[in-house]
Amino acid sequence: MYVDEYVIAGLIIIALTIGFFGGVYRFIKMDIAKHASNRET
User: CA 41, CA 24: separation in Å to the nearest integer?
Assistant: First the structure.
């Protein structure tokens, strides 16, 4: 595979994007779990 700075930059951007959305997903899951006990209707 031909590897130059553009391929490396693309892989870094993909990794950061996956990490960002993974962090948002984890934050939402933890927030739902934290507020699940407050739901008493």
Answer: 28
pLDDT values of the chain reduced to their tens digit, one per residue, 41 residues: 678 999 999 999 999 999 999 999 999 999 998 888 776 65
Alpha-carbon span 41 to 29, nearest angstrom: 21
Element (H, E) at 29: helix 5-35
Q: Phi and psi of 36, rounded to 5°?
A: -70, -35
Return d(Cα 19, Cα 25) in angstroms, integer. 10
Predicted TM-score (pTM) of the model is 0.68
CA distance 9 to 4: 9
